[in-house]
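User: Please fill in residues for this 486-position structure.
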């Protein structure tokens, strides 16, 4: 998808999928009120849900977060397309396969509100995907599982396979959905037709492989009775190589898109991943890195269009979402830190309204540290230090004087927005102020799960205060009803 080139103020938003989707209306309002263009940069390391089955059979990037954002950007005037691309097939594999066939023969009710030219184009892409599925079927050992598949994911994959280009697939999705590309771009953090997985190293030496296992652990789909996520340890005192549940190892005998010899934990599908229950990690996350299919650390380069968007932006916003599985996979890419440091004037971290499995016990300063360490590592690798700054070096940074710390932090974060609630990370204003980070507190509202959500109007006002509006209001004007500055 091309980056907007009109002479507007340019804002870049780094985020994952689900959580940040709740703020899209805020960001859309930002476009109108501040005469902006937006570029969303989104990671492709998701290997859970229906994306995991597409990865197993076809390889390619994790597309769930990209699809989620594109669907969220479809205007209400295209309600039919929105409904189709947001639809999921039934949870029964047999019923899901039967419903998919109705999309091929145009008998699906989902086509009724869609104009015929668009419906026929969508059917053509899904038919191409179906042909690719049939070519890869090795019954009974390997067949495609349509269970709970997202139609948007299926379309994006079919378009990528047809065109040979992930960016072309995103462009086609946006055009059919009516996304205004002159003002909004959705950019994958990495442009690739290959899968990119991540691993997390915990402070106790444990390594967890795959985004799904890090963030929302679940058993492989073929083994619903297995309750635990697969983790292995690389501590020095481990006497034996990691072992895997038998059903995970059984995937080794299936011919699919996974390269022979790949880590067994990267082969299964995880169609039943749940975000409702997340057991705590055994130890805090130490760092995140990319791995190849054999588990070796690698350092991929970011999408050049994403780097250009960051360098040319007036502001960058680190949105809410999973710190280590949504933001970190973008921030650690080679050279992203080098783009952020001299590029945008405003660098705003929107703090999560609650803590999750990845950030249990964190306060605001811990979030800031994690972002800075990821970006410092990215910059260091671009300068030739292949592994990035050592852990000892980064640890020593926070022990230095406030002036030295602020000189590093301000390269990447200038403002922090937060809600004040017991479920939210605690904000030590004095510490953050000594690091050069300006804090702004927003009112929030409690969701059905008891966690705090940002009040959309209040968050929009806070961003307007930071960025300065172009709708006739002076910078610094704010409503005490929704926004409080600290």
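Assistant: Residues filled in for all 486 positions:
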């Amino acid at each position: 998808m091309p980056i907007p080139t009109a002479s507007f103020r340019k804002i870049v938003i780094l985020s994952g999928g689900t959580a940040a989707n709740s703020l899209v209306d805020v960001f859309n309002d930002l476009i109108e009120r501040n005469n902006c263009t937006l570029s969303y940069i989104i990671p492709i390391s998701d290997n859970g849900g229906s994306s995991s089955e597409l990865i197993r059979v076809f390889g390619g990037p994790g597309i769930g977060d990209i699809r989620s954002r594109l669907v969220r950007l479809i205007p209400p005037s295209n309600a039919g397309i929105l409904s189709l691309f947001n639809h999921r097939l039934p949870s029964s594999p047999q019923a899901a396969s039967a419903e998919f066939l109705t999309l091929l023969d145009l008998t699906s009710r989902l086509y009724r509100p869609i104009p015929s030219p668009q419906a026929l184009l969508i059917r053509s892409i899904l038919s191409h995907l179906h042909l690719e599925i049939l070519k890869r079927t090795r019954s009974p050992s390997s067949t495609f599982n349509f269970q709970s598949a997202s139609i948007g994911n299926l379309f994006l994959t079919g378009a990528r396979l047809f065109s040979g280009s992930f960016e072309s697939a995103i462009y086609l999705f946006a055009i059919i959905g009516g996304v205004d590309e002159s003002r909004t771009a959705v950019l994958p953090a990495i442009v690739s037709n290959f899968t990119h997985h991540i691993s997390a190293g915990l402070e106790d030496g444990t390594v967890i492989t795959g985004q799904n296992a890090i963030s929302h652990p679940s058993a492989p789909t073929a083994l619903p009775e297995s309750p635990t996520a697969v983790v292995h340890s690389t501590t020095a005192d481990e006497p034996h190589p990691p072992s895997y549940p038998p059903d995970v190892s059984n995937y080794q005998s299936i011919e699919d898109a996974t390269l022979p010899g790949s880590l067994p934990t990267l082969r299964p599908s995880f169609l039943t991943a749940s975000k409702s229950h997340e057991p705590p990690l055994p130890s805090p996350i130490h760092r995140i890195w990319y791995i190849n299919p054999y588990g070796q650390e690698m350092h991929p380069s970011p999408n050049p269009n994403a780097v250009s968007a960051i360098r040319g932006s007036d502001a960058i916003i680190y949105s809410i979402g999973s710190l280590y599985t949504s933001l970190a996979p973008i921030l650690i890419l080679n050279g992203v830190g080098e783009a952020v440091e001299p590029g945008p004037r405003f660098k705003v971290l929107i703090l999560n309204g609650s803590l999750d499995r990845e950030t249990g016990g964190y306060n605001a300063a811990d979030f800031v540290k994690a972002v800075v360490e990821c970006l410092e590592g990215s910059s260091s690798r671009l300068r030739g230090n292949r592994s990035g700054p050592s852990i000892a070096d980064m640890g020593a940074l926070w022990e230095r004087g406030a002036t030295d710390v602020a000189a590093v932090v301000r390269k990447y974060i200038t403002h922090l927005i937060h809600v004040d609630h017991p479920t939210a990370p605690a904000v030590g204003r004095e510490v953050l102020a000594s690091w050069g980070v300006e804090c702004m507190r927003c009112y929030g509202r409690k969701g059905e799960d008891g966690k705090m959500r940002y009040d959309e109007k209040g968050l929009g006002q806070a961003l307007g205060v930071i960025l300065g509006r172009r709708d006739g209001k002076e910078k610094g004007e704010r409503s005490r009803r929704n926004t409080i500055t600290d």
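For context: Residues 222-246, 470-485 have pLDDT under 50 and may be disordered.
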